[in-house]
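During the no-cost extension, the postdoctoral fellow (Dr. R.K.) reprocessed legacy sequence entries with the updated structure-token encoder. One reprocessed record is reproduced below for audit purposes.
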Amino acid sequence: MITTDIARSLRSAGLAWRPVSGDAFRIERPDLDSDVFHVSDMTIEPHEFDTGTILGFNGTTEWALDSLAVEHALWLPREDQLRTLLGEAFHGLKRVTPVGYRVELDLSGRRTEFTASSAVDAYATALLHVLRLQTADV
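Re-encoded structure tokens follow.
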């Protein structure tokens, strides 16, 4: 699973989250910072309103949380989601050591590499670089 620090950096860099079933997230509150929740059509559903997205907690009678604005949740994207977000820039993923991975991107004809201890963090670091490049171009 992606590290919380990298997930926060992605959010700060402008990565938008449209919750779908199967997504993992943390609630950004000190008393819940170690818990990971999953969007599910049966228990936690995203509800779209004019004012924003609300995550509804269905059937959680033992818990005092009925809903949560998506802004108070930290999305923890999966490898496949990060790879999709990299789009055509993604060139490959390689295991470079027993505990390390490298993601290779082709950015305007130039090969760029990003390494991390997990594949998901290597993807996330690469995406963070792409998001920062996009922000710099604006």
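Residues 18-76 form one domain. Residues 96 and 134 are 28 Å apart (CA to CA). The remaining legacy entries will be reprocessed before the final report is submitted.
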